[in-house]
Each structure stands twice: as C-alpha cells, then as structure tokens.
Amino acid sequence: MKYLDEYRDAASVKALADAIARRQTRPWTLMEVCGGQTHSIVKHGLDRLLPPSLSLIHGPGCPVCVTPEAIIDQALELAARPDVIFCSFGDMLRVPGSQHDLLTVRARGGDVRMVYSPLDALNLAREHPERQVVFFAVGFETTAPTTAMAVLQAQRFGIKNFSLLVAHVRVPPAVETLLSAPDNRVNGLLAAGHVCAVMGYTEYEPIAARFRAPIVVTGFEPLDILRGVLSCVEQLEEGRAEVENRYGRAVSREGNRPAQALMEQVFEPVTLSWRGLDAIADSGLGLRPEFADFDAVRRFELSVRKTASAGPCRSGEVLTGRLKPFECPAFGTACTPEHPLGATMVSSEGACAAYYRYRRDAA
Amino acid sequence: MCLAVPGQILSIEQADDPLLRSGRVDFGGVVKVVNLAYVPEAEVGDYVIVHAGFAISRLDEAEAQAVLKEIAALEGITDEIS
Ligand code: SF4
C-alpha cells in the first residue's frame, strides 16, 4: 500500500539502524510517548536493531491505559442504566474498573455498543430518540476534535438524547511531568506523530528548551521511528535540544487549524488524574460551560468516586517507563490479554499487550 | 485505537459545510465514509490519515518523496562502507 510498504523496506531499515550506530558514542535513553509507536517498535523488533547502550522506554501514550479507574467506574454505572445505550471504542470494553469491566455489564444486560467513531454514537441517538445515548469520549488530541464535531453536530441538529462521558487527555502536560520527575532517565523524546498532526509542535518547543531534551515528531512505520531515533541521537551527540519534525508528510508546525478551532470551541483544559501519574494540571479536556448540557456526569448526576488502585497491577510503573512489562510478576501468568489485570494488557497499544503478543519476555 | 492509517479520497460530498464535509475513502480496497471537515484543502485523489472516522491530515507527497530519497542516499553510504 502506498505510504506504508516503502516505510517498511528491510534494506532501508538496516541502513538507518547502521547510521544510528555510527552516530552514537555515548549511552542514551529515549522515550516514545505514543502507544502506537510502542506497538510498532515491539512488533518489528526495532529496539533489537539498535546498539544495546541506546535504550527505548515506553511512555504513557495510550489513552485507554491512562484513563483513571474512577472514570471507568462512572462508565460502568452509566452502562448499567436501563435507559442508556452506552457507546465506546472497542479497546475500552475490557478495561477493568474497581469491580468489573464494560463487557461484564453487557453480559448482565447493559446495552453497551462498540463504535468506530463518535459520529456512530450520534447516529444511534438519532435512531433511538426514546433512549439516552452516551459516548465514552477517551483519547488524546487526535480524538478530541472528532468528539468536538459530534457535539457541534448534535447541537446543530437539536439532538437532545446524546451526551458524553469525557476523559480526553493532553500530551504536553504529561510529558512535562515525566521530564520533571527526580528519577527521570529520559534524554530525548519521540513525540506522537498524529497528536502533532492535529496540534502542531509549538507546544513542545518550551519543553525541549526547559529540560534540555530533544523532542522529535515521529511517525509510526519502522523507517519513521528509526528516523526519529536518529534525529534524537544526532541532537544529543551534538549537545542540541530542539524540536524537529521527522514526520513532515503528515505534520506541519502549526498543525490542523480547523481541528484546533473546533476543539477550543467545545473543550477547555482541566486537571486530570492519569493512571500511574496522579493529578496533572491542564492535562485533561472538559466541556466548556456552554456545552454542559452534553456532559453525562451532570445529566445523570454521577458521583465522582475516588478509587484507590489495589491489586498486583504495576501499570503505573510501566506507563512511566520505570518497569518493562516482563518485569511485572503477573506478566503472562496471572495477567494475559484474555484475563487482563490492568489496562496496559488490554489495549493493543498498551506496552504489556504488545510484549505479550510478540512474545517478548526479555529485553 | 490510535493506529490511524492512510487512505485515498474517492469522492467528496457537502464540500463547503464546515461540519458535514465528507467523502468515500479507500483503504487498500476497503472503502469507508469519512468526515473531511478537518481537511478542507484535500481533494479527490489525495491521501489522508484517518482517525475515528475523521481525516486529520492530508499527506504531503513532496515531503514523502524527499524522505525516501534521503534514505536511499543513506543506503548508498552503507553499501560503500560494508
Ligand atoms: S503485566 Fe498485567 S498486572 Fe503487570 S503491569 Fe502489565 S497489565 Fe498490570
């Protein structure tokens, strides 16, 4: 396929890996922020092509994995209501809340539907005017504009039985939190290509300067990822810490203006607790007061419960790059994709699931 | 949920509506209806990155070619060394 095959070419992958090895003189640790990149790295074994003193650690960039348990519990409460059709992306269905998951609610008679786009949920609301349709709005800045559009369409067409359980997250505040941690080992970052396709990359420029860490906008195919790594290594070796774009075919510095405009119209930054990262100021998106009618938490008067994560799952450490999935004692034994103990084993972009699927039980 | 893939635009409808602009997009033989409101500049024949039913970026062919050339040059260097 065009724009895919040419970025997987084995000879080119080898040439780039060789170029990285030639360029590197000191050990460096890079973090890929996005779970889609983690998946690609593990699937293609890219980390194993790199010199051992160049480590890639996997970041928190999987929206399914970072959605806090308290919000999953709200989703479960909504999905169990007889008047509600609860719509979610497929990845969220098996993420455990404090008690069970959405599939369990469905098995007990809840009307839980898997959708591919928020517009599918909006269509369900049109088709079932007698029911309440709630869309579980999770995702980074890639998904937030699609949710914003669903809200604006609902408003234009006067669809009153549609609302959102919002758990949108923003990448830059999380990146800042990771880099400011006292035990931070990350020297450079591969920024998530599709988040930057929407947002551009000016937000990362002050972060790169403040933490003296190169940040390279990177795509998802093997060649894209290795070009991102090469650019990071070159900068580190030369003592530079800049934002560079190595995904120019999809990303511009200013990003997608129409998408940003609609997102801004509908959402505002709010403080959010990420799984494994605690509360981070401005790291979530909430509906602006003008759109409060679309807020499912308000419409159904949901309580905001504080749930403390118990149990053996160590996904918090996995999400912050402190622990490799196979270092978790439950990995592959008590915890598998069929019986996940944590979200990082559920989502195809979660590091635990990627390691399990590609049979990685060692570095 | 974030594994967005490129597809080629086959047709465009409601081209000037800022919310409803949409079209049929071909993903290597699988055709889907996609919202195109966020890529007002994209035309039939262009490739777009699609995420949750929305095109979020039009792929720049010139940029794509430049990268492939740069990598081809690298392969040249590697051949000379090895
Ligand atoms: S292997 Fe399972 S229990 Fe361990 S961190 Fe990953 S998701 Fe949690």
Q: What does the average pLDDT of chain B come to?
A: 87
Low-confidence parts of chain B: none
Helix content of chain A: 25-40%
CATH architecture of the domain at 68-168 and 256-299 in chain A: 3-Layer(aba) Sandwich
What's the multimeric state? heterodimer
Helix content of chain B: 25-40%
**Series of secondary-structure elements of chain B, N-terminal to C-terminal:** EEEEEH
Text of the CATH class of the domain at 68-168 and 256-299 in chain A: Alpha Beta
Heteromolecules bound: iron/sulfur cluster
Indicate how many domains the architecture of chain B comprises: 1
E-strand count of chain A: 11
Shape of chain A: globular
Which SSEs are present, and which pair or pack?
The complex is a heterodimer of chains A (363) and B (82).
Chain A: H1 10-23, E1 28-34, H2 35-44, H3 46-49, E2 54-61, H4 63-66, H5 69-79, E3 84-88, H6 102-107, E4 111-114, H7 118-127, E5 132-139, H8 144-156, E6 162-169, H9 171-180, E7 188-192, H10 193-199, H11 205-211, E8 215-218, H12 222-238, E9 243-245, H13 257-266, E10 267-274, E11 278-287, H14 296-299, H15 315-319, H16 343-346, H17 351-357
Helix pairs in contact in A: 1-12, 2-17, 8-13
Chain B: E1 5-13, E2 22-27, E3 30-35, E4 47-51, E5 54-58, H1 61-81
Antiparallel strand pairs in B: 1-2, 1-4, 2-3, 4-5
The structure holds iron/sulfur cluster (SF4).
